[in-house]
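Re: ISE structure - here you go.
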Amino acid sequence: MTSQALQRRSPPQSGRQDESVLMERIRAKDVDAVVVTSTGDAHEELVLAAIAARKPVFCEKPLATTAPACRRIVDAEVALGKRLVQVGFMRRYDAGYRLLKEVVVGGTIGVPLMAHCAHRNPDVPPAYTTPMAITDTAIHELDVLRWLLDDSYVSAQVVFPRRTSRAPAGLADPQIILLETAKGVRVDIEVFVDCIYGYDIQCEIVGETGTARLPEPTAVPVRSQSRRSAAILMDWKQRFIDSYDVELREWIDSVGTGAASGPSSWDGYAAALASDACLEAQKTAKVVPIESRPTPPLYGGS
Ligand code: ISE
């Protein structure tokens, strides 16, 4: 199988000429599958082109930057009658999150009541914006909590604690996202992208009879000079490096079998519905409802 990563970093400067080259390559007979790792604003047209060419496509998160764009991708797959898309929500492939899900599904802590999460980056590039804390960062929690809790969201609110002086001008940091799920679970997600000390991902599920917490990444505990310490990773790519390998390997295997697996376009759409509501909540400071949509049969709905 030959596959080509069709990567476009931003809308092509040379306009139509680059577009046509990309589309030709997606349609080319010597391309069996497509990997889309461009910036999120280019995902929709590339994924739609792969679906039109009936090519399996791995699309980095987010599937697209808005729910309507994700819905157009869902509608294209439903019209084709076949799943071709896997979305790069790699935390579902992380060993720690898989162990956490086993505990939650296994009933050890009883019915989940609350989830407390933190998504902390040591810093972000100067171009990082307040909305990106939702669309580029918290989108991971928005997906992985749906998967962990087997639930959907019904409302979103965003509050802004005291702003850190270390944030680039114009960036509201940190933020706290408050969500309610259809089963009544209350979720809080702290997003702090200039925390300085490290790349720190926390997730605790509180159930009726106990709590379960995402395992910390392996680090050697050191005792020296009358202190105990353990390193904290600084780079998000390192924190989940194994899960990127597992998700892509499972995608390649699914291309071989012709049966798409993993996070679907519907998962990308569901995360985008919550993301759009969070963006509105950022602007309005209101509790924003998130309408539930019936899951199409192609994605396991009735
Ligand atoms: C980045 O794109 C990621 O996907 C990381 O997981 C996230 O922590 C970071 O904030 C994003 O910019």
